[in-house]
Design a protein that fits this description.
13 strands, two-stranded antiparallel sheet, Rossmann fold, seven-stranded mixed sheet, binds S-adenosylmethionine, single chain, 7 helices, globular, alpha/beta, 243 residues
């Protein structure tokens, strides 16, 4: 059997080959807006608040587990010095294609976000981490690394699924169906199914408590509720040693 990260990489590569929507990348219109000073970083049907990323021009930004041709190219078009770091070569190919076709400077690195040892202490101003921590067993390992590679006053923006995504199962009852809370948190997909899909449902304590325990000060929070009401995502803005 593959180790968990090899399996996640294969799972993501397979999804990209099947045309998953979160690998669609930035549109020409989105890139043009970013170039003209109107950067909008999508968070499902919402976006990262402007004040969270104000002044990002010229800043060193790590798009952590953030390939797919969306955040990296948009941030580069807005004038940031961008490194996209991701486990999936197929996701990184999306950034390579957009960087080439749009003539954008983007550093593209393949790796596992649990180990950022190839980056020096304090070498980034911002880390943007789209939903991805559900693929690692311990978010705190990632938070520790993020804290290390950010400089003083550095900003860490992460998005993740709320535990409600994993607590409930849908029950078919021959009528409208309903959700039933059945899974105690934390959740690990392989406890219920020995299929190849690997996903972790972390508690809010692991997420918010983990950020705080690593030294971050959380100064922004928002949520995005999807049509399926058990699909709820949140996003935090956290700062290292606020000045
Ligand atoms: C849902 S996609 C998010 C990217 C997308 N740009 C977005 O806006 O949602 C999750 C990403 O996390 C990456 N990923 C998962 N586990 C990872 C790990 N351990 N290290 C680095 N990247 C990882 C996947 O390869 C994938 O590109």
């Amino acid at each position: 059997m593959k180790n968990i990260f090899e399996q996640v990489e294969k799972n993501i590569d397979d999804l990209v080959a099947d045309g998953v929507d979160w690998a669609a990348g930035a549109s020409k219109e989105q890139l043009q807006s970013a170039r003209t000073g109107k950067l909008r970083l999508p968070f499902f049907d919402r976006s990262v608040p402007d004040e969270w990323i104000r002044g990002i021009w010229g800043k060193k930004v790590l798009c952590l587990a953030g390939a797919g041709g969306l955040q990296g190219p948009l941030l580069a078009a807005a004038g940031a010095e961008v490194t996209v770091f991701d486990l999936s070569e197929k996701m990184l190919d999306k950034d390579r294609e957009t960087a080439k076709s749009e003539n954008l400077q983007i550093k593209i690195v393949k790796g596992n976000m649990c180990d950022l040892s190839l980056f020096c202490d304090g070498c980034f101003d911002y880390i943007i981490n789209p939903p991805s921590l559900m693929y690692v067993p311990q978010p705190r390992v990632v938070f520790r690394e993020c804290y290390r590679v950010l400089g003083k006053g550095g900003v860490f923006i992460m998005a993740a699924p709320n535990p409600i995504n994993y607590v409930c199962d849908y029950v078919e009852d021959g009528k409208d169906g309903y959700y039933k809370a059945v899974h105690k948190m934390p959740f690990y997909s392989r406890d219920y199914d020995d299929a190849d899909w690997i996903e972790y449902g972390h508690t809010m304590e692991e997420y918010l408590g983990g950020l705080i325990a690593c030294g971050f000060v959380i100064n922004g929070y928002l949520e995005c509720q999807m049509e399926d009401i058990t699909e709820l995502y949140f996003m935090t803005r956290a700062v290292k040693d606020p000045v």
